[in-house]
Structure formats: C-alpha cells, structure tokens
Amino acid sequence: MKNILLLGAGYANIALLKSIKKEFLTKAKWTIVSNTPYHYKTIALHDVATGKHNRSVLFPLQEILDSEIQIVEDTIERIEAKNVIGRDRSYSYDYLVVGLGFSSDNFGIPGVSEYTHSITSYNTASQIHEKIINTLQRFLESKDENDLSFVVCGGGFTGIEFAGSLAQELQKQCDSRGIDSTKLKIYCIEAMPRILPMFSENLMNASLARLKDLGVAVLTNSKILECKKHSVIIEQNGEKNEIPANTIIWTAGVKGNEVIANSPFFKSGRSKVEVNEWLQPINQDVDNYMNMKNIFVVGDCAALKDPATHRFYPPTAQLSTRMGKYMADTFEMILHSQDASEIDINNLPKFEFQSQGSICSIGSGYAIGVVNQKEVKGFIANTLKWAIESKWNYELSGFSGIFKED
Fold this sequence. Notes:
By secondary structure, the chain is α/β, with parallel strands linked by helices. Helices cover 33% and strands 26% of the residues. The protein has helices at 11-19, 22-25, 45-50, 61-64, 112-115, 122-142, 157-177, 201-214, 258-261, 286-289, 317-336, 379-397, 399-402, and strands at 2-7, 28-34, 38-40, 58-60, 70-73, 76-80, 83-86, 90-92, 95-98, 102-104, 117-118, 149-153, 185-189, 216-219, 222-227, 231-236, 239-244, 247-250, 254-256, 273-274, 295-297, 302-303, 357-361, 367-371, 374-378. A five-stranded parallel sheet has the order 5-2-1-9-21, with no helix packed on it. Strands 11-18-12-13-14 form a five-stranded parallel sheet. Strands 6-7-8 form a three-stranded antiparallel sheet, with no helix packed on it. Helix 1 (11-19) crosses helix 11 (317-336). The protein is globular and about 70 Å long.
C-alpha cells in the first residue's frame, strides 16, 4: 500500500482530500501533517486581525476529513529525499504533496521583522487583534495620540482588505470605550503609483473613494525605507517623511514557506519551488531529479507559470483549490493502476487554470472585483464574495459551515 504524505492543511491539500473518492482513500495510506489541528481560511484572516471575525474561520481537521486519513499535528522543519523532518519525528513517503502555505517577505527593509506585525496565520492574526485592543485600552490612560495611529504597509489585496475592515472595527471599539474616533489615523502605504494593481483604474478609483469615506489615508508612490518601534520612514516625491504610529501592520509582500528555503534538497527562490504542468519540481539539481519524481508542490509554495503570458501565477486561494482538485484526479489515476510504481506522471493530464476573477472586500457591505471578465463593485460584489466563500464553507462541512458563528 502506497504511503501518501501531505504537508500543510491549506486550501490545496484540503481540496485534494475533500475531492478524492472514498474508494481511493482505502487504496493507500493517507497522512496529513499540520502545525495546527484545523484548516483556517487565509482569505478571512484580515477580519480576524481586526476583530470582525474569530473562530468562524476555523475548521477542525477531525470534523471535516474522512476517518481513513491520519491527521498528525507537528511542525515541519526540513524536506529530504524520501524523508520529511518534523519537530517531533520524521516521516517517510512514497508520494509527497508539499502545501505548507506562505510566510511574510520583508525585502530586507530595516525594522520590519522587529517592529511590524504580519498576517500569516490564524495565531498571528489573533495576536494583532489583541495588540489593537491593548493599544486602545492603553490610550485611555496614556492619552498618547500615537496609540490611535495605525499604519498598514502595502496596498495589495491583503493590505486594502485589512485597512477597510480596520477602519470600521476601530470605530466600534472607540465608541464602546468612549474614545473620540475623530482622532483615529489610519494610513495605507504603497510604493507603487497605485493600489490594487490587478484591477482597472476604474475599480482602483472606486476603492480609493471607499477608503477615503472610511477615513483611511492612502499614500502611493511612498517607498518604505525603515520601520521603527513607533514610526515608519518613507520616501515620497524625493523627500523623507516619518509617520508616527504605535501599531504597524506589514502586508507588503509574501513568499513561500520557510521550510522550502531550509531544505537544500530543493532549488528555490523566495521559498518557492518552480513546478511544471503536473505540479512537479523543475529546474532542480540533476542528482535530485530521480528523488523528486513522486513529489508535488502546490499552493503558495509552488511557482507555476501561465503558459499564455509566461509569468508566474499570483498565489490565490482559487489557484490553490484548483491545484488540490487536480491532485485528487491525479492520485485517483495513479491508484487505479495495478502497479502505481510504473506510472509515468508525464502521461497524465496536465494542470490547467483559468482564473474566474477575484473580489476584494473593503469593509462590510462593499467590495470591488472582476467575475468572468466583468467588473463589479459595491453591494453586488460583496454579495458575490459572500457566495464564493460560502461555497468553500459548504464543501468543508455542509450547510453548518455556511452559517458558522464566532
């Protein structure tokens, strides 16, 4: 019986295990190793960080996965040929699927690691929310206006969603504590000339108007030079400026999981492994190729090029989910064979991906995006985003998943 080892409980591996037919779960030994006992929706972590949501984004693995699947809670440290090293023990495999998720990328900017907070997991998002609450409580005694100043570094998807949600939730928190919310200052800093570069200028302008209504000051063409304990140094129009704030959130960039960089077995860039149309590692050392024929890399750890543009696909939950479902089909074909060891992966169907679009929420009740090549914004976009997220919740745990409460 083949030993199939899955690393990480993100969208890709969960989609794989939820998609594969029951009969194939009994034809191999399936093990998933995760550093948490649950799958969490990374696309909703910004709302956990602001306090809008909490445990509704969590789905315990024991509840959503088939009993045939062995669930192991451990932290993976390194990947080797035919062996994976965890903090608690090591794991052998016949087939390996690496889906360990992402980590924050500080781009070597001074002070980012020391003085900023990144939304990279449920735990880090919860810690950010706790810091926000503690900072507001401190203001009641300190009257330090920097306790009411918040800087969001990065004007991409996560940064804008977080900034919009933060503005609304801070208003509620201030009102409940008797704090004058007009003293709040929320900055979103972006080095490029515009925020949300994946969308049209029309949608970008709509997002800017929405953020302005929420009280968020967007600073574009603003290069972050350094993050300090109580401020951010930027260069804007050739001049240096210092923005005081006691809470700094870093959303300016992500890379693959550090486990990839810590595994000399792989040749990688920014903790990502480049993969081919079958989601297998390519451009690796010749000596390691034979040891990689049964390895697949999915999700944020995979660098996959769009064959049409020859550019790497941006990491999204949509792409990861499609990768997982593709891998379910792949393993069904492998396990259907009388002798899986003789299967030539390159004779199996290739992975193909066509984005159905994306939607960015900017606070409750409002979103912008593109769905099936059509631009949407406002309440309609927000409703579509809810429907898309509810579909994933339903796939995980049925109707009860759609109406989960915190």
